[in-house]
Description:
This protein has 2 domains: 2-107 and 295-302, 2-Layer Sandwich (Nucleotidyltransferase, domain 5); 125-290, ATPase, nucleotide binding domain (Nucleotidyltransferase, domain 5, 2-Layer Sandwich), CATH 3.30.420.40. It has 9 helices and 12 strands. It has helices spanning 36-51, 90-98, 107-118, 190-194, 196-207, 213-221, 225-248, 265-273, 296-302, and strands at residues 2-7, 11-17, 23-30, 62-66, 69-71, 76-78, 102-106, 133-139, 143-149, 152-153, 253-257, 287-289. The termini are close together. It is of the alpha/beta class.
Amino acid sequence: MRIGIDLGGTKIEGVLLASDGQERRRDRMATPRDGYPAVLEAIAQLVQRLEAGLAPGASIPVGVGTPGFLAPRDGRIVNSNLLALNGQAIDADLTARLARPVRVANDAQCFVLSEATDGAGARAGGAKAGPDVVFGATLGTGVGGGFVVDGRVLDGANGSAGQWSHTTLPFLREEDGSGGTCFCAHAACIERFIAGRGLAWDYEHAHGEALSPEEIGRREQAGDPRAAATFARYEDRLARALAAVINFVDPRVIVLGGGVSNNARLFQNVPRLLGRYTVAQNPTTPIVHAQHGDASGVRGAAWLWPAT
């Protein structure tokens, strides 16, 4: 068995996962607002609750998904929107607090690992030629991304592999405008256009009415042509962003999660647009919807300890 912890800005969720991927126990608590030591203590309490009733002395491995990522140069968290984590060596600190090894990865990487292990991106049995690469992206309030290669998260030399959403939208056009807001402050980055707030920005920019991404989706399903036009522009921008991934890495499959991915039309329309922007002619890369949904983050944290 293994324990996964998904550390978020408002809640900490934990799962006890069996070797076959079955969830044995799930629990959550609010994320403390009174500093880093309180966050460590909350995680320790959650682990204790997940282990309650198990054999005494069991030392179940723990994986943690966090906003931001560990920088290899000093082993400390950077780029986290949970500000208490920045500059902290959370893996080392939790290893000491829990008296067992703890593995930590970016929360979007954990999402991809979950889907690559036993979700929508899992590979069918059989021999494979070369490394098996899965790319995944979470399209929500923000945008996360990550790679899994042969069943393991790819961190990269700087710890930032998969942070493609903070690069400029490929094939940028004047009519694209500047997109929504993003904390990275880079003009016209991918996240500005394909996060939920990018969808909302496009509708307001084009039609002068501020709507939530959810409302735009409802209007599109009801046949509103203005909402449909916003989605068409969104799909083209998403296709450009994913085509860049295919041009660089050419993954076996791309898995999408997050609230915006719940609009089914994306999975019909975006694959048809990829060939406009990929070097490969008529690319066949499947783009699939996450199987485990919101549970993928915490499940992927558990799978940081692969089955042996």
